[in-house]
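Shape matters. Shown next:

___
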Amino acid sequence: MNGRIVALSYFPIKGLSAHPLDSVRLEVGAGFPGDRQWGFARPDSGFDPADPKPLPKDKFVVLLKEAELAGVQAELQSDTLRMLYGGTQAGFDLRDASDRLRAADFLRDCLRLTEKPMLVRSDPHRFTDVSVVSQDLMTAVSILSRSSVADFAARIDRPVETGRFRMNVEIEGWTPWRELDHVGRDIELGEARLKVLLRTKRCAATEVNPATATRDIPLPRLLRQVMGHLDMGVYAQVTQAGKVRLGDKARLL
C-alpha cells in the first residue's frame, strides 16, 4: 500500500517544539537525527551526570503533567538554544553549564514550577518515551498515519491536530489504522526501509492542544471508547539506511 510523506520532524528537547525538515537521512541503529537528545529532568529524576542513562518520561518536564509547556517555543541551532514564552525570549549556549542552569530557571519561571529542573543530555542514549524499554525502541522512528487521525476525528466529531502526537514522520494515503496491524513487517520510506516494532500507546500528553496549550480533548479515553485501544501510530527500526524526503512514497510492504 502506497502513501506519501507529508511531514518530517525532530524534537531536540523532550517535550518542547518540533523542528520541521524537508529531508533527512536515516541510518541503521541511529534513530531519527537530533531527536530527544536533551530533556528538562525533574530534581528527583535520579539522573546521574557521571553515568547518564535514559529515564521514564514522567521523570521529565513534559506535556503529560504540564500542559503549559506547549506554549514554550524552543529552537536549537548547533549548541544555541532560544526559548520564547509570551513576550519573553532568551538564548542559551548549551556548552556552558551556567547557561544550562539559566535555561532551567527560564522554564521554571515560565511554567511556575515549584522546583527547578535540570537541562540534561544523555549521549549516546535518547530520551524517547520508550527509551527505557530497549535499545531498539530507544532508536526507533515514530510514524503517524494522518488517515487514522482523520478517521478518529470523524468518529468523535471534532478536529484532532496531528501535532498532538509529536511524531517524526507523518504519512497521507494509507488505509486508516492499517499501520497498527503491521507490527513485525516492513515499511519503505523513500530510500530507507524500516521494520515496525510496536504500536504507540497514547497518554494524557495528547489531551493538550498544541496551539492553545490547554487540555481540550480526553484523547486516550476517547480512543479506548471508540476504537477499543489506546494506539495511534507505530515505532519502527531502521533496517536499511537511506534518504527520506517530503513527498517520497511511504509503502507498507
Observations:
- The radius of gyration is 18 Å.
- The chain has a mean pLDDT of 95.
- The CA atoms of residues 51 and 122 lie 9 Å apart.
